[in-house]
Amino acid sequence: MAVRQISLRGVSVHNLKHIDLDLPHRQLITICGVSGSGKTSLALDTLYAEGQRRYIESFSAYTRQFLERLDKPQAERIDGIPPAIAVSHKDVSRSTRATVGTATETTDYLRLLFSRIGQVVCHGCGRTIERDSPERVAQWLAELPESTRYMITFAAPQDWRDDVAGFGDRMREDGFLRLIVDDVTMDLSQTDPLPATAAKVYVLIDRLKAGGTSSERVRDSLEMAFEVGEGDCQIFFEPTGGDAQENFAPHTIDGLTWWQRGFTRTLRCADCEVDYPAPEPRLLSFNSPLGACPQCEGFGNIVDIDMDLIVPDPRKSLREGAIAPWNTPAYKHELDELLALAGDYNVPVDIPFGSLEERHLQLIREGVPERDFGGLNGFFAWLERRKYKMHLRVFLSRWRSHWPCPSCRGARLRPEALAIRVGGKNLAELEAMKVAEARTFIDRVEFTDWQQQVGRLLLDQVRSRLAFLEEVGLGYVALDRRLKTLSGGESQRVTLTSSLGSTLSGMLYVLDEPSVGLHPADVGRLGG
C-alpha cells in the first residue's frame, strides 16, 4: 500500500524529547505552542531537514558538493516524507537588484514573453518596426496588379570597390549574370570591366511578372536575395498608379521608369535611420550588460553630490561657512582659496548662499582652473580618486544621495530594450504597475492568434504568479519594488509566492510563521 502519512518515531531534536507523531499527506497542518516548545525544531530542523536531505542524496556526488548540506535529524525512524521546501524569514534577498518580480520569477517569464511576441516601436518616431521575410515580401508582390513587371535584386557589398575584378568574378561564379550599375543594366558575360566609380550597384537575381510566376520561384529568388544580400533585398517594379510614387524611390533604368522598395531582415527604422537589436531575454534584463542602462548600470538610480547636504543652511554666507565640507580643518584651505579670488570675480561672500546668482554658483561648482581652484567638482573628483582610503570614502558618502537615473528615469533598461512593447507598454511600464493592475492589464490585452500561440505557456505562468501574489495580499505592491524596501511579512509572502508558483507536485511545504505582518483580515485569504 502507498504511504499516506509521514511517520516520526523517536525524534530527539533540540527541545523534542523522543516523540512519536503521524502527519497525514495532503493536509494543511498548523504547529502551535509556547515559545521553546519545539515548533521550529519539528517543522524546520526535522521535517524540512530530512525531506531536503533525502532529496539532495538522490543527486550525484558532483552535484551534491554545490548544494547546502543539512544535518540528519536525531530520530529512530522517519517514513513517508516527500521532498521539502521551506519558506522562512531568512530566505529573503536583500540585494539592491532583487525585486518582487525577480524573486517570484515573474520578471523572467515577462522577459521571455516580450522577446517572443513583443513589437519593436521606434523611440524616435513611434513607428512599429517589423522584420521582413521572404514570405512577407512574396505576399506583397502577389498583391501587385496583374502583369506588373518587377526585378528582385540585392545591393552590392560596400567593399566591392576594394577588388572590382574579383567582385565580378565572384558574381559570375555564383550564377548571377546581370548588374544594375547607376541605373544601367550590365551583362556580366561581357568582357567590359565594372566601373569602380559607380555610385550604386545592384545584383539582379530574377525578372518576373505579377500573377504569371509560380510562388515557388518567387520565394526561391527572395530567399537567395536575403541570403546573399546579407539580410537586405531590393525590389524594382513598374509604376502601379495611385500615391505609391510618394512612398518609393523612382529610378530610370535603361530609359524605363521603375520604383524601388527595400526590404530587410534587420529591425531598422527607415525614417530615423536607426537599427534595433533583435529582441532576446538578455536585452530585457537589467542584470545583463546587454540590457542594462549604460549610465546607472541597471540600478535605476545614480549616486551623486547633493547640494542640500553640502549647503545645509543656505541662510549662511560663504564667509560664515555655508559650504559644510570646507568647514573641517583638513579642507579649510579650499574655502580660503575661494574667499581669496572672490573679489576678482565679483562673488559676494557676505550675503546668504541662497541669494547668490547662477554665475556665482557656477564658479563655485566649476572653479577657476587658471587660478588652481577646482571648485566643488574638482574637490569631489580629488576625493573620488582617493576613495580607496576608508576615511575619505566615509567622508565622501556624507555629501552624496541617490537620484533617479537621468538616462532611463528609473526604468533600469537601455532605450533599445524599452522599445519592445506588448499591448502598447514596455517591460518597465508593466512592472511599475501594481500587481492587481498588471494582472488586469494582461487579461485585457487583445493578443493576435500568432501571439496567443507563441506566448500561451508564458502567459499562463505570468498570470499564475500574479494571481498568487494577489491571493497572499500583495496586490498593492509593484513588480519593480525592491525587496529590501518590504516589511518582514511582505518579504516572506513574496518568497511563499515563488515557492507555490513553481507548480511542483508531491512536495512538503514548511512555512515559518507566514502570517507575520499580515492584517487580520488577510489571514483567512492566506490559509485559503
Pick out its properties.
single chain, 528 residues, seven-stranded antiparallel β-sheet, 34% helix
Task: Describe this structure in a few short sentences.
The protein is α+β, with helices and mostly antiparallel strands and 528 residues long. The chain has helices at 39-57, 61-64, 100-103, 106-117, 134-142, 164-173, 215-228, 307-310, 332-342, 358-366, 375-385, 390-397, 415-418, 427-431, 435-444, 449-471, 488-500, 520-527; strands at 5-11, 19-24, 77-79, 84-87, 119-121, 128-129, 149-155, 178-181, 184-187, 201-209, 232-237, 249-253, 256-264, 267-269, 274-276, 301-305, 400-404, 420-422, 425-426, 508-511.
The percentage of residues in β strands lies in: 15-25%
Structural class: alpha+beta
Report the strand count: 20
**Integer-rounded radius of gyration:** 34 Å
The main pleated sheet reads as:
7 strands, antiparallel
Number of helices: 18
Helix content: 25-40%
Please state the overall shape, judged from the principal axes of the Cα atoms.
Answer: flat
> Uncertain runs with pLDDT below 50, 5 residues or more?
none
Structural features, described:
By secondary structure, this protein is an alpha+beta fold. Helices cover 34% and strands 18% of the residues. It has helices spanning 39-57, 61-64, 100-103, 106-117, 134-142, 164-173, 215-228, 307-310, 332-342, 358-366, 375-385, 390-397, 415-418, 427-431, 435-444, 449-471, 488-500, 520-527, and strands at 5-11, 19-24, 77-79, 84-87, 119-121, 128-129, 149-155, 178-181, 184-187, 201-209, 232-237, 249-253, 256-264, 267-269, 274-276, 301-305, 400-404, 420-422, 425-426, 508-511. Strands 9-8-10-7-11-13-12 form a seven-stranded antiparallel sheet. A four-stranded antiparallel sheet has the order 6-5-18-19. Strand 18 (420-422) and strand 19 form a beta hairpin. Helix 5 packs across helix 7 (215-228) and helix 15 (435-444) runs antiparallel to helix 16. It is flat and about 100 Å long. The two termini are 31 Å apart. The model has no long low-confidence stretch (mean pLDDT 85).
